[in-house]
Amino acid sequence: MKNRRESKEPRIFIDSRGRWFHDGVRITHRWTYLENNKNLDIDEDGRLFVEEQGSRVYVECEDTPFVVTMVTKTENGFSVRLNDESGEELDLTTLTIAEQNIPYVRVKNGKFEARLLSAAYYELMKYAGKDEKGFYLESGRSRSYLHHNSRTVRNHK
Fold it and tell me: Within the chain, where are the H helices?
């Protein structure tokens, strides 16, 4: 029988809306949910995990581990609110649009990718402009053009 501490089979799953599940049961306890988000990390092979009582518990992710739930216009650009209730400045240079027209940004000092939920994306796009080069957003005095990439929604396993 395999020792659970050595198992790399994911027992935790994050869906595309940032909801966490443990052994198929949704984690609804706020503190547990927030603590898992806070302890989420990524290994050298790109696998997501959380440390629990001295052991590494791997996490399967339907798309991205974090999602942007809200975007707010600020004096110098934009701020975002994430599913883990944290907030940070939006780095527009990391904004990309996948083939499925799903927007993504880098968060947590660039460590993780986050998917923008529809409401957050619509709020951000209220501030988009267009010129001969295409659609853009302005942050302070800089202009970032929106571009599509060949990224497809991926699973972290």
Answer: 30-39, 118-125
* CA torsion angle 46 55 15 126 (round to 10): -60
Tokens of 42: 């990524």
Alpha-carbon gap, residue 102 to 151, rounded angstroms: 10
pLDDT tens sequence across 68-126: 999 999 988 999 999 999 999 999 989 998 878 899 999 999 999 999 999 999 999 99
d(Cα 128, Cα 124) in Å, to the nearest integer?
7
pLDDT tens column, 28-84: 999 999 999 999 999 999 999 998 788 899 999 999 999 999 999 998 899 999 999
Residue 97: CB atoms within 10 Å: 17
Query: For residues 70 and 121, what is the distance between their CA atoms, to the nearest angstrom?
Result: 8
Q: Cα(114)–Cα(36) distance, rounded to whole angstroms?
A: 16
Residue with tokens 């005095």: 141
Spatial distance between the Cα atoms of 107 and 78, rounded to a whole number of angstroms: 13
CA nearest to 90, candidates 100, 104, 46: 104
Cα–Cα distance measured from residue 106 to residue 95, given in angstroms and rounded to the nearest whole number: 7
